[in-house]
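We modelled the chain as a single entity of 148 amino acids. Its sequence is:
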Amino acid sequence: MFYQERREGVYLISNILVSVVYLGFVLGQYQALGLTSENDLRFWGVSILIFIPVQIVSRILIHIIFSIMNTVVTKEEEPTIMDEFDKLVELKSTRNFYHTFMFGFVMAMVAVALNQPASMMFLILMITIVVAGFVGDISQLYYYRKGV
């Protein structure tokens, strides 16, 4: 298994774990607070604004830990250059990420247009962020495994 495949597998698992823990925490807080519709928008807005840095920081920490563990276990250092294949894999997986996110965004707007509560829109957006990250990681793993 190549370095990139191992890295994407670790990213995939960590993305799922961090997202499930955070979404569980947010849903627990939402139910415990019993918010009114006026405070509902503020709660969900803050939850998403906190979720984005949580994802970024967790990705950075996982990358650091993975690099250290991989170097210790395999005696193989992280590649310092990206060739055309790596760039193409990254571009295609980023495309898949953005398509998934845009689909989820449109679905969130459809929920608003169908007079669903604001919490539904924000919940769809949070789930979309998680699923889009999942799709991006799976895409990279697939393209590295099967080729472009």
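As a brief sanity check on the tokenised model: The CA atoms of residues 5 and 71 lie 15 Å apart. The two ends are 17 Å apart (CA to CA).
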